[in-house]
Amino acid sequence: MSNRILNFSPGPAALPEEVLEQARADIWNLDGSGIGVLEHSHRGKAIDRIFDEAQADCRELLGLPESYAVLFLQGGASTQFAMVPANFLPEGGTADYLNTGAWSKKAIAEAKLYGGVHEAASSADSNFSYIPNRDQTSYSAEPAYVHFTSNNTIFGTQFVTEPEAPSGSVLVCDMSSDVCSRPLDPTRYGVIYAGAQKNLGPSGLTLVVIRRDLLDKAVREVPSMFRYHLHESNGSRYNTPSVFGVYMVGRVFRWILDSGGLSGMAERNAAKAKLIYDYIDGSSAFYGTARADSRSLMNITFRAPTEDLEKKFIAEAESEGLSGLKGHRSVGGMRASIYNAFPPVGCEALVQFMKHFESRNG
User: Fold this and answer.
1) Of the residues 103, 255, 272, 326, which is catalytic?
2) pLDDT higher than threshold 50 for residue 186
3) Of these residues, 26, 174, 178, 326, which one is catalytic?
4) pLDDT tens by residue, 236-266
5) Does the annotation count 174 as an active-site position?
């Protein structure tokens, strides 16, 4: 669409234009019902179908066996920071966390309200510019679970694959910023959770994939809204859910399936990121901040020699229709977020702009 610019925002982020076009029609009139999707009862047949299709497409996309439940919850990943330990970290017990940045630190802080936390690995010694390897990871004797953040939006790092948790331990992952961006083996996880607003849909919805044997394994009494089994037994509609969020996420699941599934997304994302990283690596005006073996395919973080040049770069990019390139306020610099729906042509446009900027300011 000619009146849309390139959205490099880290979240809420770009969505597939085909999905937005369909949503525009369905907001007005869903499936000829005469009522828009925002107005339908969450208990009605039209919304039953939306929930059923979204769950089925999620199962197909992730290759989930029946031993896993799919939940559509609210509260973002931040609520899961507390909900996970509330259910699975017993008083006097210990959970292991891999600390790779701001979101890991927030999750750790919430877990400490319920029990002991052991930092099994950390990259704080280098301002979270890398992902610790196996030799840098030391688990506690019997962790209740092991938690990690698969992609780190602020520092531009990403796990290449999931860590090896101790035998018998539950692996829990905050996958908010790279969910559905590449193939994975879901059976290696006990819990996967992800805020939708980066790779799946609008803010306000949280995807939770949980092994069914964990649904009713809470180690303490928790409020109703913190009970996984209650949400599952009510089809993610124990309370009024984010109906539009589920609708949008379902449409994005279908878009990914129609675009080659997780393998197709992985190939697309790797090619997009390579364009930008290759230019940065050969540039004399820009440099990347994440270690090469830990680079994210979702969030490319980079800097210029001075903050004045960075401010100029961000302002000029904005004026050229390249929006959202300012780095997180805690670290500065620049950040190009190129989630699933971000178009390859946008990465090409960014590289061309960087070349032009370097030729004038190098």
Assistant:
1) 103
2) yes
3) 174
4) 999 999 999 999 999 999 999 999 999 999 9
5) yes
The alpha-helical segments, DSSP class H, found in 195-326 are: 228-233, 243-258, 261-282, 307-319
Residue 2: per-residue pLDDT: 62
Residue 3's pLDDT is 86
- For this structure, is 198 an active site residue? yes
Give the CB-side neighbour count of residue 236, counting CA atoms within 13 A. 25
Q: Are strands 151-152 and 157-158 parallel, antiparallel or unpaired?
A: antiparallel
Q: In sequence order, which ranges of 118-260 are alpha helices (DSSP H)?
A: 228-233, 243-258
Closest by CA position to 26, among listed 257, 244, 249: 244
pTM of the model: 0.97
Q: Where are the alpha helices (DSSP H) in 112-260?
A: 228-233, 243-258
Among 2-6, 115-119, 232-236, 297-301, the least confident range: 2-6
Domains defined along the chain, listed by start: 18-258 (3.40.640.10), 261-361 (3.90.1150.10)
CA 259 to chain centre: 19
Distance CA 235, CA 230 (A): 9
Nearest one of 195, 256, 191 to 19, comparing CA atoms: 256
Tell me whether strands 145-149 and 94-99 are parallel, antiparallel or unpaired.
parallel
For residue 295, what is the DSSP state?
B
Residue 308 known to be catalytic: no
Alpha helices in the chain (DSSP H): 17-28, 45-62, 76-88, 102-111, 228-233, 243-258, 261-282, 307-319, 344-361
**Hey, what's the torsion of the CAs at 44, 49, 55, 57, to 10 degrees?**
-160
